[in-house]
Each structure stands twice: as structure tokens, then as C-alpha cells.
Amino acid sequence: MQKAPPSSVSTLSRAGTSRLSWIAFGAAAIAALAMSLAVLLKVERDAQLDEVGRTADKLALALDRHVEATFDLVDGTLRSAQRQLERLATSGPMTDDAVKAILQDNADGRAAIHSMSVRNANGVLTDITLLAQSPRVDTSQSDYFLAHRDSSLVGAFVGTPIRSIVTGEWMIPISRRLNGPDGQFAGVVVATVPVDFFSDFFKSLQIGSQGLLDIFRADGTTLVREPSDNLIGVRIAGSVLFDKHVREAPIGRFRTVAVTDGIERIFAYRALSHLPLVVTIAVSVDEALAPWRARVRLYVGIWLLCALVLSAFTVLMMRQAAREDAAHRAAADVDQRFRRLVANVPGVVFQRVLKSDGKVAYNFVSGRVQEIFGYTPAAIMKDPGVVLDQVDDARYRIQLGASAEDLTTLTLEHQVRDAWGKTRWMRTMSTPSRLPNGDVIWDGVAIDITDRKEMEIALKASQAAAERAHTFLTDAIESISGGFVLYDADDRLVLMNRVAREWHPEFKSVAVPGSRYEDLIRAAARSGVIVGTGDDIEQMVNERLALHRKAFGQPIERRVDGRWYQVTEYPTSNGGVVVMRTDVTALKEVNVRLEEARILADDANRAKSDFLAMMSHELRTPLNAILGFAEIIRDHGAALAPGKASEYASDIHTSGTLLLTLVNDVLDLSKAEAGMMELQLAPVDVSEIVGRSLRMIKERAARQAITISGKTESGLPVLHADDRKLLQILLNLLSNAVKFTPRGGQVTVSAACETKGVLAIKVADTGVGIAAENLAKALSPFGQIDNLLTREHSGTGLGLPLAKRLTELHGGTFDIESQVGVGTTVTLRFPLDREIAAAA
């Protein structure tokens, strides 16, 4: 059975279906093309942003190296100036010319350094390289000065940008601390880097009209901003860079809207490895997407002209090829700009790689290597060991391995022989990162430090020679038996030997190099080791200054701290003074002993005369009374009334008793002075002895209307003493107190334990008192303040000296305080913690 041919309806249906299919196909193709275009645009947009971001990363790396190399160069210059200035401070006075010469020598040839200057310990600008006369500007409140003054910071400090006092331009101050010879803070040395120094670098980047180059301090303060400087020195609040990204990673990239101008940018940042700085390269998102937007319009046009797919596709491919070619050219241009940037870095930029098999290779070496070493970059990359690895292999491998393991910055200083046979010193600094395949790469820079090293070696040799010469001179001066002191033309101390230095502890503390002669003399006068015609310190200083430099070569004898010195001054050829001091105490002591012997002989002769005069008077008075009353009784005894005879006999007895007491006091004092008195020690009740002495003197005090009282502390410990001698001491003191206290006065005796192991007995009166200048005389044997012709009170003056000597024989102390018109207080202090032996 044959099939029927298809009807026209089915044919039309198939035709309609075909048309619908083509419509669907066309619609689907158009939709697919639209979706493909949308995906393609998204991918290209992301690729464009990623490419710009990678380029920004490279530029940030180059900026990182440029800033690091620049700041290291400036810091190296500061360290050199710091050492020279501190050495100058220890070698003598720091004149402005000498300081400025050091600053100028270090600043010369450093394109990055605008000026160098010094601030003293008070923050005042004292020297600057750009001006012949430095203005005295107070910078004591600047952050870099406070950082060095208020902490032990020993490294460089990057300060907040400042305006130049010379040009008014923005400057970045980099500073180091200066210490004085005593290690104390002496100021800061500052080098300023112009903000405009980074302008040429920014211009070479070509990152668009809205692109930014920023250098920040770690606290967010803006140091450099290109192309605008309106935020220099400002700490931007709410910055996502410091509030988030730098805290999370030292190197990175992010996209955000800038808080300063509201423009969305891609930021590539790097925190410098050994400097408290952060650098950023920012590219505007709008400018970065400009090529992409052009492609968007093209693709939309292609989508609208889907009917011309083939021709449009051909045109598209051609244009795509052109765009790819342009992209390659742009990439090549970026690479060329990067190489030009690297060529301007002061050193050799390289990328080292440590492969998983342990081999070291170089992926990149900048063209400066040929200028420095004479080898081409290709030669270095072919054979890494030809230049950069001429180091101690074992040490190099160990440090390289440690850096690869911990991903820590690798810094080396080593010697390298260049193609011309010259040995150079290089400092290499590189930061590692690990690749997905396990290899570790280091991006770094090698800087030629040959000049600095040669300067350090020469400096060490010079210092060693100076130290040897100084040692020879010091040994020679120290070998002098007398004092040796050298002053410069300004009368400032240069050096002195040990004999002179140990003159006195207070003098030694101020006798440091640089001290003025006048200040040293003033210190000696204040310490009491020199004396003048008066007690005024300034008068003593002026007397010494009047003699100084007036009698070169003529010896002057001076007494210092109990010793005699012969001082001779000699001039030096440069206007200084050498002072030689010789101890002549032995010679002086011979003369002093002769003079003392003569004085003792005179005193002994005078004392003998005084003693005889005193004793003749004191003995004659009671003897005359005895003889007179005895004669009356002998001649008129029968005619005398019984009461009268008894009265005369009583007067004879009183005079005899007085005579016996006088003789006993003289004998007791003589025995005590001769060391022949023996004490009969036994436990003594001090309260009982005090009471007995008061009872014995009470009647005499009553006759003179004097109030006498005693007060003893309860529970007093037993005192080991001679009770008879102790009673004699108290009676002598009470007799004197009653004798020299006017009518109506008071005499008080008290006993108490002052401190642990010490018992004190005090006898106080409200008598006439003794002047301070007469106390020593009152305590001497036969010492009375009035002479025989003018004194108002009788007595030999033995009471106080005898009481003092007896107290001392008991191991005690005898203290007397007196004021004329107020009274006298005598304090006896006896030890309780040991038995007292009778001392001779």
C-alpha cells in the first residue's frame, strides 16, 4: 500500500514550523548572543580591574623599594652625622662651624636631602646647612623631638611633615637622637626630604588624572600625596586602609570610595618591612574601566546588528585583535615604565627564587647591575654566583633557609668583586613570598655601600690610633705622684690624673672634661675643702681667680682638707694652663709640730701660773678664817661667851671642811687625769642616788630661795656604777646650778631611759647661763668665766671638769647646753648593756 503524498497543509505547517523554528532559533541566537555578551562584558570588566590591580601592585612594590632605599640612604647619612657629632662632643667644645661642617659634608651629594640641622636638648634649632646664620627656632613641641627626648629611641624617627623655614615647601623630617658624653639626651640631628622629591616618580607612573600616590606614617599621617598636597601632615580619620586592611595584612589590594574626594579607586598598599611607613598606589575605577565601557557600546551595537552576524563577527574579530594588540602594547608599555622606574632606584633591583630542589636562580636583575659590577643582567641570571652570591656560602645558606622557612626579610652585608677586580661592599634587602608550587621568591634591592664601609674602616683605624695615643698620655700623667690638671685656653678642664681627681668626692663628681675652672673652684669651696679669708663662697672663688694665671712658674702653698699642697701653674703653647700640685704636708707637719710644742710650752707655763694664782686664793681664804678664829679663841677664849666660842669653832670647822673639799677635788681630778682613779662598780638605784643628792643640796637651795625638784621615771633599770662617784657628779652639778641661779630660780633633776640600753640624767637650772664661746673654758680645770678680780662667785672651777671626767670613766657622755640669761642643762648618758670597767 502506497503512502499518500503530503498535503499542502502539512507542507505549509512544516514551513510554518520551520519559520517558527528559525524565529525561535533567531530569538534564541539573539538571546544567547545577549547572554554571551553580558558574560563576556562581566569577565572583561573583572579582567580589566584585575589587570589594573596587578599593575598597581607592581607600582606599589616599586614605590616601596624607592621609598625604602631613599629613607635608608637618609638614615645612613643621619647615623654618620650622629656618630661624628657625638664624637665631636666628647673631644671638645662643639662650635657652630664644626657642627655645620659635619652637617654639610654629610648632606652634600645626597639628592634626597634638602637640609640637615641640629636641635639642642631644649629643642632650639642651633645649626642648619642652608643658612649662614641659623635662626633660633623653638621646635621642642615637634613630634620627632619629643619622641627622642621622652624615650630611649635609638633608631630613626619619621616626623610629621613641616614647612621649610627657608623655602616654605613641605618637608619630611627624619631624625636621630644625640647623646652627650654622659649618655644623657643632648638633642637631635634632623635631615629633611622634600615632598616634591617624589613628584618625578609620580609623573613616571602615568596612572591617570585621578590616580594617587600616597606615603603614610604607620599612624595614618600623610607624608606625601601626589598630585595634591592639601592633606600633607593630616591624619585621615575613618580610613579603611589603617582601620582594617593594614591590620590584617602588610601587603594587599582593595577597592573603596576615598573619604577625601568621594572617588572610587583600586588601592594597592604595602607596609614597609623595617620602616613605620605605608605606601599606596590608587587608580580610579572610572578611568580603569574606560576601555571596557568602549567595548560595551561596541557589543551592544553588535547585538543590535545581529542580522549582519558574519560581517559583524569579522569586524568584531578584527577589532578584538586590534584591542588585544593594544592590550599587549599597553602591557609592554607598563613593563617598560616599570623597568625605567627600577632603573632610577639607587641600587640593583632583583628577584631571587629558591626552588624546591635547593637551587638558587634570579628571575630578574635591573640594568644598574652592569653600571655597578660590569656584568650584564643576562650574565647574572645565567650564573647567579658570579656577583650577588659571593658571600660566606654556609652563612648565606643558613640565613636564606631561615628567611624561606619563616618568610622574614633577608638582609645581608657582604663583599663582592666586580668585573674590574675591585672589591665592593653591598647591602641586600629582600622580602620573601611563597609560590603555590613551593618555590620561594624574594623581591629585593642591592645597594652599593662601599664608600660607607671604607669610611667606617678608616674611622675605626683613626679611633684606634687616637686611643693608643690617649692611653700613652694617660699612663704618663697617671704615673705622676702629684696632681696634674690641664685647662684649655677658655679655662675649661681637659684632663686630670687620678691623684687630682680623688681630691674630694664632691669635687670628683663635677671634675669632668669641659668643666670651667671657676665652677671647679666653686664646688671645692662649697664642699669645704678650700678656705679663704672669709666664709663667703663667692669671696673664696674670687680670691682663687685673682691668683690664677698671675704667677706662672711660682709655687703657691695652699691648705686643702687638712693637707698642705704646693701648687704651680705653667702656660701651654695654645693658651692653656697646666697645674701641678705636690703634697708638702710632711714638711709642713714638721713646722706645725715645732709650733705646737712652743704653744704647749707657753700654755703649760700659763696654766701653771693660773693654777698657782687660783689655788693661792682659794686656799688662803679658808686658812685665814681658821687662823683668825683660832687666834680669837686662843687670846680671848676665857672672855668669850659660850655661844660665841661655839660659833667660832663652827666657823673653823666649816672653813676646814671647805679646805678639805678643795684638796679632795684637786686630788680627784689629778688622779682622773692621770688615769689612776679606780671605780668601785656595783648595781646602783639611780632614783635613790638622785633623791640623796637633792636632800643634801636642799638646805643650801632654800637659803637662796631656789626651788629644787627631782623627777625619775618609774621602773628604771639598775645602773652598774660607783655610787659614791655618781653622787659626787650630781652634787657637783647641783652645787654649780644653785651657785649660778639667782633667787627665785629653779633647779630640776630628772632620770629616764632615752633609748634601748641608754640611761640619761639631766640637771637643768634657770641660772645666768654660759655663752657658747665660754663653754670650752668652763669645762677646763680651774676654768671660770670671770677672772679673780671681777668674778662674783667663789670656787676653783673644778666642778664641771671633774663631773665630766667621772662620767666618762663610767663609759658615759657629758653634754652641756646653755644660753645666757635662760639657763643651763647638763645631760649625762650611761650605757646599760654592759658593765663598765674602771678606765684609766
What's the structural blueprint in terms of helices and strands?
Blueprint: H1 8-91, H2 96-107, E1 115-120, E2 125-128, H3 143-149, E3 157-158, E4 162-163, E5 170-179, E6 185-194, H4 199-205, E7 212-217, E8 222-226, H5 240-248, E9 251-257, E10 264-271, E11 277-284, H6 285-288, H7 290-304, H8 309-343, E12 348-354, E13 360-365, H9 368-373, H10 377-382, H11 393-406, E14 410-417, E15 423-434, E16 440-448, H12 450-478, E17 483-487, E18 493-496, H13 498-501, H14 505-510, H15 517-527, H16 537-547, E19 556-560, E20 563-571, E21 577-583, H17 585-636, H18 642-674, E22 682-684, H19 686-703, E23 707-712, E24 719-721, H20 723-739, E25 746-755, E26 758-765, H21 775-778, H22 799-809, E27 813-819, E28 823-831
Parallel strand pairs: 23-25
Antiparallel strand pairs: 1-2, 1-6, 3-5, 4-5, 5-6, 7-8, 7-11, 9-10, 10-11, 12-13, 12-16, 14-15, 15-16, 17-18, 17-21, 19-20, 20-21, 22-24, 25-26, 26-28, 27-28
Helix pairs in contact: 1-2, 1-7, 1-8, 15-16, 17-18, 18-22, 19-20, 20-22
